[in-house]
Amino acid sequence: MPAPVIYIWKKAAFLRLLVPLITGILLQWYLQFNPLFWWLLFSVAAVTFLCFFFITLFQRFRLGAVSGVAVFVLLTSLGALLTYYKDIRNDRQWFGRFYSGKEYIAVQLLENPVEKPNSFKADASVLQLQKNDSLLAVHGNIIIYFKKDSSLKNLHVGSELLFRKHLQPIKNSGNPGAFDYRRYCLFQAITQQVYLKPGEFVIRESGHLRMLARLLNRMREKVLHIVRTHIPGEKEQGLAEALLIGYKNDLDKTLVQSYSNTGVVHVIAISGLHLGLIYWLLVRLLQPLRRAKQTKWLHPVLVITGLWTFSVLAGAQPSILRSAVMFTTIVIGNSLAKKSSIYNSLALSAFLLLCLNPFWLWDVGFQLSYSAVLSIVLFMKPIYNWLYFKNKVFDFFWKLNAVTIAAQILTLPISIFHFHQFPVLFLATNFLAVPLSSVIILGEIFLCCIAFIHPLAMATGQVLSWLIRFMNHYIQHIENLPYSLWDALQLNILQTILMYIFLCGSTYWLMKKHKTGLFTAAAALLLFTTSRSFSKINELQQEKLIIYNVPGHQAMDIVRGNEFCFIGDSSLLENDFARNFHLKPARILYGVHEMPNSHRILKNKKYIQLRQKHILLLDSTIRFRVPEKKLPVELLVLSKNPSIYFPRLTASFTIKQVVIDASVPFQKAAYWKKDCDSLHIPCHNVAENGAFVMSLN
């Protein structure tokens, strides 16, 4: 009897094509080969594969291994080449190749400006560079931040602007464990950013968007207008927009955090759940077309058209495109009276999406979406068979919970790796949120259909607002329960892989009762435990000083073992979002918690001795006094805006390293940097070079 793994491998033909494609994507991104190397491999593999069509069947069988290697190399080269050419920096017409900072830049807005706390933000496509009297057509995207002004009302998606201002590169904060924002932007062909004030740009004649883009934008704006008109409450409107078409600009940040902490953030993200509802609705509404031979062919065409229209309208994110490809496969299979393998549909959709954009491989939504669906396919039935209910209502709700439990199994390692937390009470939240959010989505679709009937639309909007408010209150109540969240979890990439090997091995053993699975799971668990033990030992021995890059703020952690002591602005500790975004990732990475009474230990101290290293902290709140004798200083930290002079400092201290933190004004930081250069003292400007980390061991 053949092993199940081989059965799945043969059943899902596209799975055998997906592995080499992913291999090529990873090799090219991390090793950055010359494309000529890949073109050579691609050509040799293609010629080798084609030669098999000109030999006998017996020879093909004998040389089957050669054919397999040729296909593997062919697809690996394809993945690498797709990755190389998708990188905007390798585009011959990328504006960065020609831009010197003196040219006029013509751009087209890709979205309506979105309001931020201190500005408006919009992504824009660079169309032209004006060099002297000539116009050069170029490619690439930038981020534009606009100073808040009434004139911005004239800006919308498709508007063309002309300006001449020096573009700034996209930078990471450099904070340990922080989100790689620069790579995220690069994957969207965004490499630069600029801040524009009124008078620094002119609006050209509105550019012409493609007809499809213009139509979809109008539909999107119409849907948003209906939601904002008929559903009262800002929080309710923001969630309704996200549920229906994936518009997240109006979402309340604290509410999103609550959904994430309770394990139902997938409800907000447009995914298979939403498209499944659209698919079910389209199939039901268009069912009469299947009864007549003349209109039978229209049924799959209209269903597929509706699915893809909704997918593009919802932002064409990887998770929903994956679902769109899968449902398209199902519709085509049903119309041809053929049932396709779910594994093949999954592999096919992943293959097509990665060919379209190889960088989606790093997208968290892409990873979670595929792991969740695969987990449901593998584990839903065994989990559902744990309990049996004669009552159909109880059976329905148990089936929902079985799906929820199954989805968590393969998504758990990815969730911990990216988000460093596990929602303990995910069953309680999903039990209500999944069916209720489905009802809300269907209600919103109904609202859009009857929006022209004002009294009925207002009544529907009131009901939807109440349902959303009830769901929000329920989620936040669960979040506030003790032990609802297992937080500050940390896995590196090796430990994540070992966790998957353990899950696969133990599953194979439990389902097939095969000892190979048990041995594989035991070996993976042993290696995982060993790796975690080494990580814990390193955490207990670590001693570090971290100066964070938090714009406009003083923030520094002194780490000793698995404890830290914070020195900085108290406003950071009071702002949950700022603390979680800037400080928390590093503390999770190093596995530390706050030292008891740490705020008292270093209160008002400016000269700190850690091990054999002396650190001098100077800011505008500390008065500097000349010491009686010259003192050694391994690290001088300059913060905020102190009145100091480097010649006076060097006369009083022997300074080996200077760090200027992110709270120092730009002009003062530049002035101090020049002083350090003239005195040949190494200087690290946190605002420009990212966070500063020094080992104290």
Q: What is the radius of gyration computed over CA atoms, rounded to a whole number of angstroms?
A: 29 Å
Percent of sequence in beta strands = 5-15%
What structural class should be given to the helix and strand makeup?
alpha/beta
Please state the average pLDDT score: 85
Helix content: 40-55%
Query: How many beta strands in the DSSP annotation?
Result: 23
Uncertain residue segments: 1-6
What is the overall shape? globular
Largest sheet: 9 strands, mixed
What's the structural blueprint in terms of helices and strands?
Blueprint: H1 4-11, H2 13-31, H3 35-51, H4 57-62, H5 64-86, E1 104-109, E2 114-115, E3 120-131, E4 134-137, E5 141-146, E6 160-163, E7 168-169, H6 181-186, E8 190-196, E9 201-203, H7 211-230, H8 234-245, H9 253-261, H10 265-268, H11 272-285, H12 298-313, H13 318-335, H14 342-356, H15 364-384, H16 392-419, E10 422-423, H17 426-449, H18 454-479, E11 485-486, H19 493-512, H20 515-541, E12 543-547, E13 555-560, E14 563-568, H21 570-574, H22 576-589, E15 593-594, H23 598-601, E16 607-610, E17 613-618, E18 631-633, E19 635-638, H24 646-652, E20 653-655, E21 658-660, H25 666-679, E22 683-685, H26 686-689, E23 692-695
Parallel strand pairs: 5-8, 14-15, 17-19, 18-20, 19-21, 21-22
Antiparallel strand pairs: 1-3, 1-6, 2-3, 3-4, 3-5, 6-9, 7-8, 10-11, 12-13, 12-23, 13-14, 16-17
Helix pairs in contact: 2-5, 2-14, 3-5, 7-8, 8-18, 9-18, 11-12, 11-13, 12-13, 13-14, 14-15, 15-16, 16-17, 16-19, 17-18, 19-20
